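Batch manifest, entry 17 of 40.
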Amino acid sequence: MILKPLIPTRSVKLHRPHWAQGWRIGAVLAGALLFAPLLLVRSDGLSAVSAQELTAGVTTELLQLPAVGMSLAARDSLDCDTDPNADAQACLAGLRWEPESFGVQIAASEGLNGDRVVFFPSPLPVGNPKHDRAALEWYAAKDEAGNLLTAPAVVVVHESGRSMPVGRIIARGLRDHGLHALMLQLPGYGHRRTELAEQPERILDLLRQGIADVRRARDVAAVLPGVDTDRIGVQGTSLGGFVTSTVAGLDGGFDRVFILLAGGQLDQVVINGKKDAAKIRQQLEALGISDAQITDLARPIEPLRLAHRIDPRRTWLYNGMFDDVVPRSSSYALAKAARLPESHHVELPANHYTGIIFLPVVLQQIRDEMVK
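Output type: structure tokens
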């Protein structure tokens, strides 16, 4: 990576205090350099890069976006085989569903949030019509003439921000790198926002539905025109990163997995994390939910229960060195359980929020890995 000298791997021991200040200074300086390319954006939404760079690894065909109102047919490719580990098998039993055929509907996008909205039924319905109708914001890869590029696709799983700003920034960035990006609106967000989203005790339960929706989104992407069905990846940030971590352990459905500012030990993040995590904990405490109950609620979707099923060759994890929302121990636990090579576990000299300054480098690596 471009910033390899600035990004320590797990082999680096950070036991001298003055190193931390040096990393923070490096992060600020790197951020100034990294954000410069983001200012070079054309009015057509494409980054100011050469056409040759944008289309490297992809092909251009005379394709158009599907018309609003069009319906497509899809089928689940979920293959949760049995696991010799009894705990993993029990976890899979609570997350899997019977593969089936289902319909996909194309709708108009809203404002700058993608080119189309793609609706499909959640494979794990909860009995609420809005929650049970999953939605993808499709940021389609197109050439300057507006034709679709035949290119890899990435399902993006957003953070906990109510308006999903980081997820949308990542989706637009991947689109500008010549990839199709499909940002899934998790249950309780966007088109799926209901009164259930205001009940903190339902958060972890709804994430179970979100995990199933992300996995089915892979098969939705596969029926969209222009998507290279041999290269469909998934990327998740923060809350979406935990969802993505569990999805990666279901089966080998996604060709590439990119996890940002997340990891394992979800219950400990809620119990001990600060800022956003602390807000969730306080809401749960106000309802009389104890730490032990938080652990029980998080257990059905805990990434570490399935981490040994993750393909380490196709998975990349990025964590913040100074993250106090998702502690480093959470990311290291996932990296160890998934047997990630050191080159696939990147530690950013940032906290949970300043990590965004490294987003251009992360997006570039995602693009490079997706077109291989």
